[in-house]
Amino acid sequence: MSEPTGRIRKAANGEDSIYWDKSKNRFVGAVSLGFTPAGKRNRPKVSGKTKAEVRRKLRELKRELDSGIKSSATYTVTQAVNDWLEKGLKGREKSSIDTYRSLAQTHITPYLGAAKIRDLDADDLDEWLEDRAKVLATQSLRMIHSILRRSITQGQRRGRVTRNVAELVQVPEGRAGRPSKSLTLEQGQAVLRAKQGSWIHAYVVLSLLVGVRPEEARPLTWVHVHIDGEGEERPHIDVWRSVRRHGDTKTRKSRRSLAMPHQAATVLRAHKFRQMAESAAAGISWTDERLVFPNPDGSLRSALNVRRNFRALLSEAEFSEPYRWTTREMRTSFVSLLSDHGIPIEVIARVVGHSGTNVTEKVYRKQLRPVLSEGAEAMDNIFGGPEDD
Question: Which of 75, 146, 233, 273 would suit a FRET pair with 199, their CA atoms being 20 to 30 Å apart?
Answer without folding.
Answer: 233
